[in-house]
Each structure stands twice: as structure tokens, then as C-alpha cells.
Amino acid sequence: MIQYYMPTKVFWGEKCLVRSAELITGIGNKSMIITGRRSAQLSGALTDLLEALKKKNQDYYHFSEIEENPELMTIQEGAELLREFNCDHLIGIGGGSPIDAAKAISVMAANKLQGREIYEGDKIKYALPIVAIPTTSGTGTEVTPYSVISDRETRKKAGFGNPLIFPLMSFCDPEYTYSLPQKVTIDTALDALSHLLEGIYSRKRCDFLFPFIFSGIKLIIENLELVISNPQEYLYRENLMRASLYGGFVIAQAGTTLQHSIGYPLTTHYELSHGMANGVVMKEMMELYSSDISEDLNSLFSFLDLSQEQFYLWLDEWIPDTRLELPEDFIIKAAEEIMGSRNMAQNPREVSAEEVKSILRKL
Ligand code: NAP
Ligand code: FE
What domains, with CATH codes, occur in the chain? Predict the structure, then answer.
């Protein structure tokens, strides 16, 4: 049996936000806008949103303190502000960090949760409506029921998932990604690529997803270099944003796997961006699973008209060639954390702690 659930209304294309302003202002009385410190402004999305809200005299409160890999304490602060300023829905603008923060603030405020209670699924009964406006092409969070939050105290990064946090609407305008620095463009594309590949690895993979997976991967391979040399070319930016959206469609159903779990401690301890943390283990992951999913990988590479070796060579162009050389005490601790993560349930077969350690030792 296949189940497919995607309740988010996606608006796509140039100026889609400005053209659909009345839909946002129809959601509630007071919006809480959630952003990082600079990107919402830089991308042009905040200006478009404020114009839309102004047209309809919509009241709002703007919380602009979301850091990369949002912190639990910031989510707690956001939830308190939401209640103080009586907001009834959230609009996240940015990369995955502010949009995931909007999702987490929504459930923390709606269920009156404290701190780590956010990871306790049975405590989440309600959510305030969420609007997502992506300014990166990577996470796909604009169409997923997940939010990933970091706990500074335990130095652990962990996601939670609940169908209630699928955004109600997402406005995807590729122009908002023109201002992305080159590094963020590359790293976020690697994140999207991970999501698409994980749709093949996941135990929850289903054939509905394969058209998204195959064409999303092809879009990244064909467009990443073009975007790097023409960062303001609509078509190439659009193609990357489309691949990211497809990646979101895929993980919303299939979930993520060890590929993502192994990246989290690399981000919290070695400051690798989320996308690059996935990128550095991508080859190892494909090698690990190759025999379990060989038929699907063969179909992928024949669709791409590439050999697995050629794909690895393409990947090498985007990954720094310096090794991480992780210390053994980190490897032991990280392996324990990784083995306990929820994503491990989706691996195509049982993976042992020894296998995880041996991958970490190769990085
Ligand atoms: P991000 O952490 O949201 O942003 C990375 C950097 O890029 C920030 O400095 C940000 O600036 C800047 N930036 C974003 N858009 C920009 C633009 N258009 N122009 C200039 N600068 C811009 O990066 P991300 O990779 O999109 O999100 C990563 C987070 O998403 C991680 O926490 C990851 O775990 C999570 N994630 C979630 C899902 C999901 O389904 N929920 C899936 C995968 C990953 P500001 O700080 O000023 O905003
Ligand atoms: Fe991701």
C-alpha cells in the first residue's frame, strides 16, 4: 500500500508572493514574521511581504533573531513573544533555519511546551498556521512536516516531525535566491541532492517519488555549475529551486536516513553547514547501500547517462579535498548519538555502530 500526503499549497514563480498577497492576509489577524538577521531583507522577500501586508493593513510582529541551525532557546523566546504580541499565524522567510524555527515556534506556542518537550511527539496536539517563503534552494522544508532544532546545552541537533507542521502555503520565487553567496548555493544544493538520494535509500521509498527523484538529481547536476557562473540567471536558479522542492516532496514521504543523522554531529561539533555535512558523507553512503539498492541506482545512472564513477567525479568538484580526520573520542560519541537518531529507522538495512564508526574514520 502506498500513502501520499502533501497538504501544502505551493505557489511557484516570479513575484508569486506579491500576486497572492490576499491569501496571506486572509489567514489571521496578526502575523509573526520569522527571519534570520539579514537574508530576508537581502533576498527581497521581506520587502515583498511587508508590501503585501501593508496593502491589507495587516498587523505583524517581526522576530529576526534566528541563527543558522536554530537553537531551542531561540524557539522558546519566539514562542513567548508570539503569545505576548498575540500573533495567530507565522510566516517564515529564509533558508531552512528560519522556516524550521517558524514551525517549532508554532507548536511550542500552540501547545504551551517548554524546551525539550518539543521532541515529545505525543505533546504536540495543535499548531498555528505556517507560511513558508524559501530564500535558499536546499532543505525543501517549505513542503515537509519536519523541523530541525539544535540544543546548545547537549550540543545535539535533532528533528521532529508532525503532519501539523506542513506549511499551509509556500511561496517559491527563484529570484529570492539571487543574493545567495556561492558557498550557500553549493551547500544547499548538496542538501537537496541528499534528500533526493535518500528517497532511493529509504525503507519508505515508493514509486510515486521516483519521477521527482530522478529529475531533481538531473536538475542539480545540470544546473549547479551554471548557477555558479550566472548567479542571477532566472532559469538556472529556478531549476535548483525546483530540485529542492522535489527533494522536499520526497523526504516528506520517505523521511531521511543515516546520511542525515551522520551529518548532524559534524555540524554541531565541526561547524560544517548542514548541506556540506551531507555532502562529505555522500559517496560513503552510496557505497554502503549500493548492494541493497543496486537496481534503483542502475536505473538512476542510466537516466542520468552517467556511470557511478562519473557521478563521484562530479561530486568531488563541490566537496573540499581536505580531510576532517576526526579524533577517535569524537567518533565514539558521535556514533552513539547517530545510532540513537530517529532517521536510522529508514535505512534500507540494519547498519551497525561499527559501520558508522568506520565511515567517520574515513572522513
Ligand atoms: P540557513 O541556515 O537557513 O541559512 C544559511 C545562511 O545563508 C545564513 O547565513 C542565511 O542568512 C543565508 N541566506 C539564506 N538565504 C539567503 C539569501 N537569499 N541571500 C543571502 N543570504 C542568504 O540554511 P539552509 O541550508 O537553507 O537551512 C539549514 C537548516 O535547515 C538546518 O538547520 C537543517 O538541519 C534544516 N533542514 C530542515 C529540513 C526540513 O525538512 N525541515 C530539511 C533539511 C534541512 P541569515 O542568517 O541572515 O538568514
Ligand atoms: Fe537536509
Answer: 9-175 (3.40.50.1970), 180-362 (1.20.1090.10)
Measure the CA–CA gap between 286 and 253, rounded to whole angstroms.
20
Q: Is 144 left (phi over 0), alpha (psi -120 to 50) or beta?
A: beta
28-64 tens-digit pLDDT = 999 999 999 999 999 999 999 999 999 889 999 999 9
Query: For the whole prediction, is pTM greater than 0.70?
Result: yes
Residues touching ligand 1 (Cβ under 6 Å) are 36-39, 42-43, 68-69, 94-98, 100, 135-136, 138-141, 144, 146-148, 176-177, 179-180, 184, 188, 191, 274-275
Q: Which of 45, 224, 254 is nearest to 140 (CA)?
A: 254
Q: Evaluate whether 84 touches 32 at the Cβ level (below 8 Å).
A: no
pLDDT digits over 93-120, tens only?
999 999 999 999 999 999 999 999 999 9
Strand ranges, E, within 64-197: 89-94, 130-134, 146-151, 156-161, 169-172
- Residue 306 CA to residue 290 CA, distance in Å, equals 16
What is the 93 CA–ligand 1 centroid distance (Å)?
Answer: 10
Say if CB 68 and CB 204 are below 8 A apart. no
Reported in sequence order, the residue ranges of the chain that DSSP labels E, i.e. its strands, are: 9-12, 30-34, 59-63, 89-94, 130-134, 146-151, 156-161, 169-172
